[in-house]
Write a structure and sequence with these properties.
The chain is of the alpha/beta class and about 425 residues long. Helix content is about 25%, strand content about 20%. It has two domains: about 200 residues, 3-Layer(bba) Sandwich (FAD/NAD(P)-binding domain), CATH 3.50.50; about 200 residues, 3-Layer(bba) Sandwich (FAD/NAD(P)-binding domain). InterPro entries: Auxin_biosynth/cation_transpt (IPR050982), CHP04046_FMN-dependent (IPR024000), FAD/NAD-bd_sf (IPR036188).
Length: about 425
Amino acid sequence: MSEHFTVVVVGGGQAGLSMSWHLGRLGVDHVVLERDQAGHEWRDRRWDSFCLVTPNWQVDLPGFPYAGDDPDGFMSGAEVVEHLEAYAASFAPPLRQGVTVTRLRRTAAGIFALQTSDGDLTADQVVVATGPYHAPAVPRLAERLPAGITQLHSSEYRRASQLPDGDVLVVGTGQSGCQIAEDLHLAGRRVHLAVGSAPRAARRYRGRDTLTWLDAMGHYAKGVDEFGDVDEVRVRANHYMTGRDGGRDIDLRLFATQGMQLYGRLLDVTEGALTFGSDLTINLDNADAVAEGIKDAIDRWIAAKGIDAPTESRYVPVWEPPSEPRALEAGELAAVVWATGFHRDHRWIQVPVFDGRGYPTHDRGVTSCPGLYFLGLPWLWTWGSGRFAGIARDAAHLAAKITAPRRLRKAEDVIWLAGTAPETVAA
């Protein structure tokens, strides 16, 4: 006979543990299922020199605020794992590790049935806290590179010595791509970087970390519904910078003056030749414009609040791209690192709550299927939702929804389940 819980939380990272803390505090019977170990994403998908981009003071989990001696520093990957382990030990969640959920469906009786690698479970309500980074995304054109070139996804990269001697191409300039390119560059490797449209931000400005200013200005609390195009906001790339060595800017133009080869977006691989777009200049200019725009907003905030902050000169570009796109032959490369993101994989969820792109439709984590929730997605509600900064707020909101007095839905709100008759369910 299946075990039954009031709530099953799928995922044992910072989101799942935060949800468990709230449910435990409210006395809700629940279990947390984790496919690997708690905090798996921080253990196995980060390179050796990885550090958080956000300051340590933002690592503020429910009931467990950062209490270290370096609030303005940046935790390494190993320190994040240690922090999550300490968090779990602080309240002993009902965590089952090494348990994979292979199917989630809603029965005609209105409960959730979960098939797992450790047997079947049922639940009144389910929180999906598996994050957005499931399957590494590598473009099909990777198949056209010569067999002798080593290829890794960013989730597999650990250190420069892992790659064979020779030139390395990094494709993608989100946070991972830029930081991996820097890691290789600092290790003395000749790096070729295909630059995309991700924005950048200065690490510090006018005496404070830029993210500290933005937090004070309310940016982390600004709801996604305050933007004109919610769908567009939710797929925006994060600004690139780094927390390495105490935190600093990532200036691709400066790297270019030091020998890094910059290109536009990678378009094709044909007969051993790599073709790049002519968008390098506009991508670098746009990234700089975003960084300077953030500084403009900080200047206005300082002036409006009458804050005594030091002045600072503005950024001046130190390099301009050539007028024509550079060419690159595959024979020049020893390795390629694909920093091209991840695909979502929710095929195990057999409940009709996804849009045409496979994104779960929800209102602040509450789906149209009563009792099914999502937590830990980027821009679930605010900019901080996919980070430590906003998890506590989002988890508290869902805990309140889960424990709210239940009522019968109106007839027009009846849920139709595939292959069953319509039913009236509790909201």
